[in-house]
DUF985 domain-containing protein
Amino acid sequence: MGVGDVLDKADGVYFCIKDRNSVFLWVSQNFADLVGQSKESLIGSADDRAAHVAHDKAVMASGQPLLNFHETIDVPAAGGGTTALEIVTQKGLLRKKGGTEIIGITVCFAERFPAANREPDDLIQKLKLTPTGVGGHFAPGPGSTDTVLTASLPERFVGDRHLYSTNYYLLKQGEVLGLHALNQDKQWFYHRGSAVRLHIFSPAGVYSTVDIGADLNQGQVLQAVALHNHWFGAELLGPGYVLVSCSLAPGYDRRDSVNPTVAQLAALKQVFPAHADLLQKLASASNSEA
């Protein structure tokens, strides 16, 4: 059994070798299966994914191998189209035999979350998370015992509050965080799992998104804020789940969260007609009257 045979049978590992012009010199069977092509059709063909080619060239130009690089790639989905897959990549430099000239690159990667379908249930149990009622699972984290009197708070608050509160939040594949608004700014902090996208609808009629996750090269961020009095919801961008922490100041109280009424949802659809379907999807998950 040769090295190629071993790499072909390495479960969960994807491997390919490309020359300086991004022509595939060899690919493992796992790699071919992942991209939905045969080994024969790939070997000898040029990689047509511009972003990957550019990244390969940058690594070769640096003269240094790349280790434990987190990235997101699009792969064919079973039902058609593509799905996002978060991976950890190692890129090595292929040098000319007996010399130092770089003549190609080796690419080896694996899924960041190979047990993505099992991990969320383990985390739900370990962190004692419970359903939120508006999508996802929640557990309180450390919070302040100091109190802020209602007279010191903006008029939108009714009653005293703790100085701040924190919580864990987990969103599983197939779930969305329902549309709602808060009296406080909600700060989000990424921990693990796939990226999550916040959909934010401002009182001024501006729609925006922010992707919270670990792939900074794809524009994801490790922390973000959903401002107070903005309608917002969230959905998972990849497989499995996402685990984040959220913090609010002053601390959360049930009176601080509101779901859209039928009239409010209708008004939002008029202001954001291009996102009417998204608003309906998010509002339905929030158990509103809509």
Summary: The chain has seven helices and 18 strands. The first helix runs from residue 3 to 8. Residues 15 and 108 are 4 Å apart (CA to CA). The mean pLDDT is 90.
